[in-house]
Specification:
The chain has one helix and 29 strands. It is an all-beta fold and about 350 residues long.
Length: about 350
């Protein structure tokens, strides 16, 4: 099913390619997004969805010194987040805190808690401990994985351990396994590498996988979804790593981002450089019989895994974020700086 957007929009001043759910904000449906301007002062926007779900309100606007290539909200403190940024010549990463009384300040300034300054190569992402309060976070660059100890009260970050993937491996991103906090999956040029954080050694891999992004299914162990160069998604059962258990083809160009729903197993979003966001139902990744019954009203009817395609974007869509507070809501950001929040509730109800 294809169609335009009935969502709520918000325009940034500059281009953008990252957005994050503010998971620690349990009172509001909130998102953080950052801009990507080489010449202008960049901005971080704190957006909240109105109680009626009809408006995206900018609750905070903060200056950020460099182009923001990755942004991730802290899962246990709604005022803390990380960014990966570029000066145009080099990359850096830092952890920031939003000032407590930001709504009462004329020009609130972000407080830098710590710089993740051990990198010498291009940094791709920062990963927070999957759930709950913890002092560990991960950063990944082209060659290395770093595990950090973060102390927000002392405003410091120390390298706990670090390992190189080797000169022949080009790391481009990763995901922390929510079912096994000792495991991180990293995207490589033609494989997915699984790292054991206790030994900082590669424990396993998926070969001949050209993935731009990946995400773990939050409801079922061993399930991983990858977004592929060629135009679709693959669902993997890591206990049977030789081949995917499902392939979902629906983008006409590179599939750049994939996000598994935090509550509904099998509900997956993808976005790409074809200016589209696709909503998928992966039966292979689902253990939720109630949702299956809602999606299929007849046992003889075969469900199209592509539930809906949001295709009225005017530029590439590089990032997506499900809301943890309202898991039927997601936000997307396209390269032209347009943020759109949509509800997938119509696709969870009986057809």
């Amino acid at each position: 099913m294809q169609g335009g957007s009935s969502g709520v929009g918000y325009g940034l001043k500059y281009q953008a390619r990252c957005i994050s759910d503010v998971k620690a904000d349990t009172d509001h449906t909130s998102f953080l997004t950052g801009t990507l301007s080489l010449k202008e002062e960049n901005e971080v926007h704190l957006l909240r969805l109105s109680s009626g779900g009809t408006e995206l309100i900018c609750e905070g606007l903060f200056s950020h010194p460099n182009e923001i290539w990755d942004l991730s909200s802290c899962p246990f403190d709604q005022r803390i987040f990380s960014t990966v940024f570029s000066t145009g010549e080099s990359y850096g990463a830092a952890v920031w805190r939003i000032p407590e009384l930001y709504g009462q300040l004329n020009s609130p300034q972000l407080e830098k808690i710590a710089s993740l300054d051990a990198h010498s190569r291009k940094i791709s992402c920062v990963l927070w401990w999957p759930s709950g309060r913890h002092d560990k976070l991960i950063s990944i660059d082209e060659e290395n994985i770093f595990l950090w100890n973060l102390d927000c009260s002392k405003k410091s970050a120390q390298v706990h351990s670090q390992e190189s993937a080797g000169m022949l491996h080009y790391l481009s991103g990763g995901a922390w396994d929510p079912h096994d906090v000792n495991t991180v999956a990293a995207t490589c040029e033609s494989s997915i590498q699984f790292w054991d954080l206790r030994t900082m050694q590669k424990a396993n891999s998926l070969e001949s996988v050209h993935a731009r992004d990946l995400d773990y299914d939050t409801q079922r162990k061993h399930l991983l979804v990858t977004s592929e160069d060629e135009s679709g998604l693959r669902v993997w059962d890591l206990r049977m790593p030789k081949a995917p258990i499902q392939e979902l083809s629906g983008h006409t160009h590179w599939t750049w981002a994939v996000r598994c729903n935090p509550e509904y197993g099998g509900l997956v979003l993808s976005a790409g450089t074809d200016s589209a966001v696709n909503l998928w139902w992966s039966s292979a990744a689902s253990s939720d019989e109630l949702i299956s019954e809602r999606l299929i009203d007849s046992p003889t009817r075969k469900l199209d895994p592509l539930l809906h395609s949001y295709n009225d974007y005017e530029d590439s869509v590089y990032d997506l974020a499900w809301s943890s507070r309202e898991p039927w809501i997601f936000a997307s950001v396209s390269y032209d700086g347009r943020v759109v929040v949509e509800s997938v509730k119509p696709y969870l109800s009986r057809k």
